[in-house]
């Protein structure tokens, strides 16, 4: 069947659902009912969510969990995390508790510079373009004053604009490379508006530049867009303690543990196959907080992975060392986050998450997110280098299997009791349920 539809976005929500149900489902009524089951009974709240995107047909739940006892720079926080993976919040909470009695997490913002570029084609003498740029530079600032004045009041704005010659890579390709300070907003709209105005100024001013030939006057702007690679919007999170203090139930020999932990990090530093999984563990913590606080996790992901490859090979974002019997574990990641603007004032659960974090500034949120990433990485490496992850992972996953088999309360009690002392695997649980039900 040819499932093409014209003017879909103009249909009402009901009409959209009916069309999808009819075209794609063997039981259309069941599909419609399921989609509607996830609608919020509060019509205003539902409308708010409907309008976040185009063609909304329902809501897609992801659990919002909390990880308490995070001691960060001497202050205790409970961190909200939106994530579907069963073991992530538990791991964060465990890490937080572990480090809360060992000095807690230290976090520092290294810099907060954002970047945007106007990509353009100039066919002509690059030295003329250079002097044109230097003469025109001030106009890029003055022509954006109506966009930048509010940001300037908040202490932000355009930091600098430089001309970059990229003709060695693509013929006639140049950039206006601009840096910005966007304070508590992520700044995407602000930066893109500035860039589009730069592009306009660039084209207009070139037209009337008397030293340019007719060809040189005709600057072609390819695009104007912020960069999600923000290597100078950087935060560092760290934990550190004497090796002897690492001792606990699963760490009987702290020296051996610390050494193996450092080796595990070294492997991720030199081996991309391991680095990707290692960093994925960090992103479990990062993304969950980024999502709960209404930030753009795709931008964060793209920027962080680019940063992990900055030396030409994908590598670990975190590092560990033992020096004078002190164990230190840290990470540095680029994070462009906002605590004002965007979804932060629109999504009720985002507002709630930010209030739970005591209304952080963007810098404070950078620290919290980096700490969540480090905590997650610590929990993963601690399990991997001691008990292995499957034990804890599968215990958490047991719930998912029980739900899949719609186990009743009685069955759950019996099954949980059994698997307290037996290895959890999907097939072992399925066999056990089937036997129980015989
Ligand atoms: C699973 O979501 C994340 C881990 O694989 C991370 C790691 O291997 O370090 C446990």
Could you walk me through the main structural features you see in this protein, from its secondary elements to its overall organization?
The chain has 438 residues and is of the alpha+beta class. It contains 16 helices and 10 strands. The strands form 3 sheets. A 4-stranded antiparallel β-sheet has the order 3-8-10-9. The chain has a 4-stranded antiparallel β-sheet with strand order 5-6-4-7. It is globular and about 90 Å long. The mean pLDDT is 96. Residues 85, 277-278, 280-281, 284, 380, 384, 389 line the site of (R)-mevalonate. (R)-mevalonate (MEV) is lined by residues 85, 277-278, 280-281, 284, 380, 384, 389.
What descriptive keywords fit this protein?
binds (R)-mevalonate; alpha+beta; 10 strands; four-stranded antiparallel β-sheet
What's the overall average pLDDT, rounded? Answer: 96
Give me the Rg, rounded: 27 Å
Distance between the termini: 43 Å
Low-confidence stretches: none
How would you describe the shape?
A: globular
Structural class estimated from helices and strands? alpha+beta
Helix content: 40-55%
Largest sheet: 4 strands, antiparallel
The total count of strands amounts to 10
| Annotation field: number of helices | 16
In the sheet with the most strands, the strands line up as 3-8-10-9
Strand content: 15-25%
Order of helices and strands: HHHEEHEEHHEEHHEEHHHEEHHHHH
What are the distinct ligands in this entry? (R)-mevalonate
């Amino acid at each position: 069947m040819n499932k093409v539809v014209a003017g879909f976005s103009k249909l009402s929500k009901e009409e959209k659902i009916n069309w999808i149900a009819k075209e794609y489902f063997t039981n259309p009524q069941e599909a419609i009912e399921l989609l509607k089951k996830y609608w919020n009974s509060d019509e205003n709240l539902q409308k708010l969510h409907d309008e976040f995107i185009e063609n909304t047909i329902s809501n897609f739940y992801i659990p919002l969990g909390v990880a308490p006892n995070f001691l960060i720079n001497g202050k205790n926080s409970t961190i909200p995390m939106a994530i579907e993976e069963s073991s992530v919040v538990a791991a964060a909470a465990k890490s937080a508790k572990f480090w809360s009695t060992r000095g807690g997490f230290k976090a520092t913002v290294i810099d907060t510079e954002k970047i945007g570029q106007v990509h353009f084609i100039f066919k002509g003498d690059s030295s003329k373009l250079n002097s044109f740029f230097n003469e025109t530079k001030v106009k890029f600032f003055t022509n954006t004053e109506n966009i930048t004045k509010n940001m300037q009041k908040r202490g932000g704005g355009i930091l600098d604009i430089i001309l970059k010659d990229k003709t060695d890579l693509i013929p006639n390709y140049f950039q206006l490379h601009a840096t910005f300070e966007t304070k508590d907003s992520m700044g995407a709209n602000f930066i893109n508006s500035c860039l589009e105005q730069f592009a306009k100024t660039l084209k207009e001013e070139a037209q009337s530049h008397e030293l340019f030939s007719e060809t040189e006057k005709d600057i072609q702007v390819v695009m104007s867009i912020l960069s999600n690679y923000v290597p100078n919007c950087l935060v560092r999170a760290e934990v550190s303690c004497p090796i002897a203090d690492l001792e606990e139930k699963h760490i009987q020999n702290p020296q051996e543990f610390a050494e193996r932990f450092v080796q595990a990090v070294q492997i991720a530093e030199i081996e991309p196959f391991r680095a990707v999984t290692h960093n994925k563990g960090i992103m479990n913590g990062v993304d969950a907080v980024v999502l709960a606080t209404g930030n753009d996790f795709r931008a964060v992901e793209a920027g962080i992975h680019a940063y992990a490859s900055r030396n030409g090979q994908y590598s670990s974002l975190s590092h560990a060392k033992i020096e004078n019997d002190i164990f230190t574990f840290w990470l540095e990641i680029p994070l462009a986050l906002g605590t004002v603007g965007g979804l932060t004032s629109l999504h009720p659960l985002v507002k709630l998450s930010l209030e739970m974090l005591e209304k952080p500034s963007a810098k404070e949120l950078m620290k919290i997110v980096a700490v969540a990433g480090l905590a997650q990485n610590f929990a993963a490496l601690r399990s991997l280098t001691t008990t292995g992850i499957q034990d804890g992972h599968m215990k958490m996953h047991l719930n998912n299997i029980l739900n899949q088999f719609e186990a009743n309360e009685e069955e759950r009690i019996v099954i949980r009791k059994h698997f307290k002392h037996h290895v959890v695997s999907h097939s072992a649980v399925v066999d056990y349920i089937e036997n129980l039900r015989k």
